[in-house]
C-alpha cells in the first residue's frame, strides 16, 4: 500500500515489515499494572503477554502505556529507564523503531510529584482560553522533557446530564465554549511538541440516564450540532493530531466499529490525517460488552475497518487474533498497512525515526511542579471560582474604601471574632483534585504514600491569609455516609465565630471510589451524605455562613440560594481547583481577588429535570403543557463578583449575508467601586427556521478587565456560521431570516419582549413559574440574514473574534 503523504523513509519501512512487525506497531504495552484505573482492567489484564520486555517487543512496539502514570515512580529514575529502553528497542529489534509513549494529562501530567491543575470544568468556568493555552503549554513541556510524545486530553464531550460521573472531565454544556477552550488547550500542549488526543469521539456524554458506557440515543442532528462542533474546532483550528473513540454505542452501533463516524466523518469530511487510538480495551469491548463481535479477531477486524489505528492500552485483539484473520484471508492486509502508515508518519513527525532519537542523556533534576506551574495553577483556579450568592458577607473583612459587595447594601463583613472553618472538604488535599489527578486516579491504590508536592487545603490557606489564631476548625461530617457525630462540635465552633466557612462537596475517584469521576454516576443530585444537614445546622446557629462547594459536578442546591428559609449568606462554587485551589479560595473569600468565574453548566433544579441544556427549543423549557419545572437554579453563564457591571449602547449590523459576518459592539461599564473582570456574553436566537432552534445560544464571549467607574467598548466579529444548523436534508446550512442578538450576563438574563402570541391555544416557552435571579442584558437587536441558503463547509470560519475599541 502506498500513501502520497508518506515519506520515502516511512514507505520503505512499511515495505520491509513482516505482518507481525506491522501489527506490533498498532498496539500498546502497559507496564506496572496494579490498581484499577481503567474500566474492566482486572478482567482484561490477563490477556497481556507477561514475558520479558525483550520477548514482548521482539517484533517492535507501537506505544508504551503510561510509563510515568501507572504507579508512583521517581521522574529522574524513570526517565533514565525509558531512555535505556528506547535505545534497546533501536538496537535489539530488527527495524530499530522506538516506542511512542503516552500519558494522561487532563489536570496536568498524571505522574507522581507533577503539578495538578484545575479540572476541565474549571477551565470552562474561567472563560479564558488564553490562560488555558498557557496551562496546556506548561503541561506539554513537562511531558516532552520526560520523553512523552502523546497526551490523552482534552475531553471535548459536551455536558448533557450532571448525573454522569465524568462531568468533571468536561469543559461545559455549550459546544462553542467547549470548542474554544478545548482548542486552546490543544494548541498549548502541541506547542511543546506533544500530540494532543481529542476524546471521546463521539456522543459519549449523552449516555442514557447519565450512566457510564450506557447507550446513546441522540439523533444525527444532535450529534452534528451539539457533539461534533468542539471536535471540528480542535481539528480544523487547533490542528489536533490524534483522536480517541467513545466507548458508547450511538443508536445501536458502537463507535469503535462505526466507519461512518471514524472514517467517513472524521477523515473524509473533516480531513483528519492523524492517528485514531482506542479508548482502553474498547476494541475487546466489541466482543465482551457490546456483543457485536464473536471473538477478539472479529473485534479487531471491525475496529480496524472502522478506522481505529492503535489498540490501547495493550495488544489484546490487534496481535495474534488480527494476524490470524489476515492470514486466513478474512481481513485485507491493506487495512493493516493503512494504520501502520499513519503510526509511522506520527513517529516520524515526533522525531522517533531520527538516528539520534534518545541518544542524548536523559533529564535529571526534573521539576514537575515549578514556580511557573504553581503560578498558572493559582491564576486559573482563582478565575474559575463562581460566586453564586452573597448578601454582603463577602469579602471577609472591610471592603476596599467601604465599598459594598455587588448587589448588597453593606460592605463585606468586618470580622469581630474568629473564622470557623467547617466541613469534610475543608482540610483534605484530595478534595481539591479531580478524577484524573494522580492523587485520585492512582495514589488511591497506594495508601500511605505522600502526594509528592505541596497542596494547601482551604483551612491552611485561610490560616495563612488571616493568621492561624483567627481560625477554628471542625470537620463536622464525612463526604459520604450518615455519621452525624461531628455535628455538635461543628455547631459549637460556629457559635463562637464571627463567620463560618463550610466546605462541602465531592471526593473524586474511579469506579465506586468516590462520589464523582469515571464510573461514579449518581441517581441523585443532592449533596452526598449528610452534608446538607451539616450546612443547615451551621446556618441555624445564626452565624453568617459562607458555603464553598468543592465538586466535580453541579448539585441541586436551590435550598442554599433561594426561598425564605434560613440559608447561607454566600455560596461559592469551586470545580476541583487543583493544587493552588486552597489559596485561590482564600484570596476570593478575603477579597484579595474578586471572583470572576461563570457557570459553564446550568445549576440543576433537581435530578428529575435531567437531562437539561440551556440550548433547548421553546418546548424544552417550562410551559403550561407540563407540571414539571426544568428551569435551572442558576443559568449557564451566571456568576457574581464584588462590583457591578452594566451593558449599554449595543450596536449590531442590520443585515448580514449567509456567508458573511456581522459585527456587534457594546459598552461594558463598571458601575461599582472596585476593579473587576467581566465575561461579556453575546447570545443569539434564530426566530424561524426549517427546524426548531434554541431559545438562546452563546455566539461568542470576551473576558475583559474594567476599572472601577470606567467603561470599555467591546466589538464582536461574528461569522454567519454561528447561526448554522443541520437542516431537514441533514446539511449544515445558514438559512436566510431574522436573528435576535443581545449581550447578557448569563443565558437567562434576557427574555423576548412582549407576550408570546399563541392564538389562545397554549402558552409555552415562558413557563407557569418565573424564577428571578440577578442578571442584566441589553435589549435584543434584530439582524436580517440575507442571500441564498449557504452550505457550511470546513473552510467557513467557526470562531468569533473580539477586540476592545
UniProtKB/TrEMBL annotation:
One of its GO terms (molecular function) is hydrolase activity. Keywords: Hydrolase. SUPFAM superfamilies: (Trans)glycosidases, Beta-D-glucan exohydrolase, C-terminal domain. It comes from the Bacteria. Residues 678-747 form the Fibronectin type III-like domain. Belongs to the glycosyl hydrolase 3 family. This is Glycoside hydrolase family 3 N-terminal domain-containing protein. It comes from Curtobacterium caseinilyticum.
Amino acid at each position: 500500500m502506498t500513501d502520497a503523504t508518506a515519506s520515502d523513509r516511512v514507505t520503505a519501512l512499511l515495505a520491509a515489515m513482516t505482518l507481525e512487525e506491522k501489527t506490533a506497531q498498532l498496539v500498546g504495552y502497559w507496564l506496572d499494572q496494579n490498581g484499577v484505573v481503567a474500566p474492566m482492567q482486572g478482567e482484561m489484564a490477563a490477556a497481556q503477554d507477561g514475558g520479558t520486555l525483550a520477548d514482548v517487543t521482539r517484533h517492535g512496539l507501537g506505544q508504551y502505556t503510561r510509563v510515568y502514570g501507572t504507579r508512583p515512580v521517581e521522574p529522574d529514575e524513570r526517565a533514565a529507564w525509558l531512555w535505556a529502553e528506547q535505545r534497546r528497542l533501536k538496537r535489539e529489534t530488527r527495524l530499530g523503531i522506538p516506542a511512542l509513549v503516552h500519558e494522561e494529562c487532563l489536570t496536568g501530567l498524571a505522574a507522581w510529584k507533577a503539578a495538578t491543575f484545575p479540572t476541565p470544568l474549571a477551565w470552562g468556568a474561567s472563560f479564558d482560553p488564553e490562560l488555558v493555552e498557557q496551562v496546556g503549554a506548561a503541561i506539554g513541556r513537562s511531558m516532552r522533557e520526560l520523553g512523552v510524545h502523546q497526551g490523552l486530553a482534552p475531553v471535548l464531550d459536551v455536558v448533557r446530564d450532571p448525573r454522569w460521573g465524568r462531568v468533571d472531565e468536561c469543559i461545559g454544556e455549550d459546544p462553542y465554549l467547549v470548542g474554544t477552550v478545548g482548542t486552546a488547550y490543544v494548541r498549548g500542549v502541541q506547542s511543546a511538541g506533544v500530540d494532543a488526543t481529542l476524546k471521546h469521539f463521539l456522543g459519549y456524554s449523552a449516555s442514557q440516564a447519565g450512566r457510564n458506557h450506557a447507550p446513546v440515543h441522540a439523533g444525527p442532528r444532535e450529534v452534528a450540532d451539539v457533539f461534533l462542533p468542539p471536535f471540528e474546532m480542535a481539528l480544523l483550528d487547533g490542528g489536533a493530531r490524534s483522536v480517541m473513540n467513545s466507548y458508547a454505542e450511538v443508536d445501536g452501533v458502537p463507535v469503535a466499529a462505526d466507519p461512518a463516524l471514524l472514517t467517513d466523518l472524521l477523515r473524509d469530511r473533516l480531513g483528519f490525517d492523524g492517528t485514531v487510538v482506542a479508548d482502553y480495551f474498547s476494541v475487546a469491548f466489541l466482543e465482551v460488552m457490546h456483543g457485536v463481535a464473536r471473538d477478539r479477531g472479529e473485534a479487531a477486524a471491525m475496529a480496524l475497518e472502522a478506522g481505529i489505528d492503535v489498540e490501547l492500552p495493550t495488544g489484546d485483539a490487534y496481535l495474534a487474533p488480527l494476524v490470524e484473520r489476515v492470514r486466513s484471508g478474512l481481513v485485507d492486509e491493506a487495512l493493516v498497512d493503512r494504520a501502520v502508515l499513519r503510526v509511522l508518519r506520527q513517529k516520524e513527525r515526533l522525531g522517533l525515526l531520527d538516528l539520534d532519537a534518545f541518544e542524548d542523556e536523559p533529564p535529571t533534576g526534573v521539576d514537575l511542579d515549578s514556580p511557573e506551574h504553581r503560578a498558572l495553577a493559582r491564576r486559573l483556579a482563582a478565575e474559575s471560582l463562581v460566586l453564586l450568592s452573597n448578601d454582603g458577607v463577602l469579602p471577609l473583612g472591610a471592603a476596599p474604601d467601604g465599598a459594598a459587595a455587588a448587589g448588597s447594601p453593606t460592605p463585606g463583613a468586618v470580622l469581630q471574632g474568629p473564622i470557623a472553618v467547617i466541613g469534610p472538604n475543608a482540610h483534605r488535599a484530595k478534595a481539591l483534585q479531580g478524577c484524573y489527578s494522580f492523587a485520585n486516579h492512582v495514589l488511591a491504590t497506594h495508601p500511605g504514600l505522600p502526594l509528592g508536592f505541596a497542596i494547601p487545603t482551604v483551612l491552611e490557606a485561610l490560616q495563612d491569609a488571616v493568621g492561624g489564631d483567627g481560625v477554628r476548625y471542625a470537620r463536622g461530617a464525612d463526604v459520604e455516609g450518615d455519621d452525624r457525630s461531628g455535628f455538635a462540635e461543628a455547631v459549637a465552633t460556629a457559635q463562637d465565630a464571627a463567620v463560618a466557612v463550610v466546605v462541602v462537596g465531592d471526593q473524586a475517584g474511579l469506579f465506586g471510589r468516590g462520589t464523582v469521576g469515571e464510573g461514579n454516576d449518581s441517581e441523585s443530585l443532592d449533596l452526598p451524605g449528610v452534608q446538607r444537614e451539616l450546612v443547615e445546622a451551621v446556618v441555624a446557629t445564626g452565624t453568617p455562613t459562607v458555603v464553598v462547594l468543592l465538586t466535580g459536578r453541579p448539585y441541586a442546591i436551590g435550598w442554599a440560594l433561594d426561598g425564605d428559609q434560613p440559608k447561607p449568606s454566600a455560596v461559592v462554587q469551586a470545580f476541583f481547583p487543583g493544587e493552588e485551589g486552597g489559596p485561590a479560595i482564600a484570596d476570593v473569600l478575603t477579597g484579595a481577588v474578586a471572583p470572576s468565574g461563570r457557570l459553564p453548566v446550568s445549576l440543576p433544579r433537581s435530578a428529575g429535570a435531567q437531562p437539561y441544556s440551556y440550548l433547548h427549543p421553546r418546548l424544552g423549557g417550562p410551559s403550561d403543557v407540563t407540571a414539571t419545572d426544568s428551569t435551572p437554579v442558576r443559568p449557564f453563564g451566571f456568576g457574581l463578583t464584588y462590583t457591578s457591571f452594566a451593558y449599554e449602547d449595543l450596536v449590531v449590523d442590520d443585515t448580514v449575508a449567509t456567508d458573511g459576518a456581522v459585527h456587534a459592539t457594546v459598552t461594558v461599564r463598571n458601575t461599582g467601586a472596585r476593579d473587576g473582570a467581566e465575561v461579556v456574553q453575546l447570545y443569539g436566537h434564530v426566530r424561524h427556521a426549517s427546524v426548531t432552534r434554541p431559545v438562546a445560544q452563546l455566539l461568542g464571549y470576551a473576558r475583559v478587565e474594567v476599572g472601577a467607574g470606567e467603561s470599555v467598548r467591546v466589538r464582536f466579529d461574528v461569522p454567519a456560521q454561528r447561526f448554522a444548523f443541520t437542516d431537514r436534508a441533514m446539511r449544515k446550512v445558514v438559512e436566510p431570516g431574522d436573528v435576535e442578538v443581545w449581550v447578557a450576563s448569563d443565558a437567562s438574563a434576557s427574555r423576548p419582549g412582549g407576550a408570546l402570541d399563541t392564538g389562545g391555544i397554549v402558552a409555552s416557552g415562558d413557563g407557569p413559574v418565573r424564577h428571578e435571579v440577578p442578571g442584566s442584558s441589553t435589549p435584543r437587536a434584530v439582524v436580517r440574514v440575507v442571500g441564498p441558503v449557504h452550505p457550511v463547509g470546513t473552510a467557513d470560519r467557526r470562531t468569533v473574534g473580539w477586540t476592545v475599541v
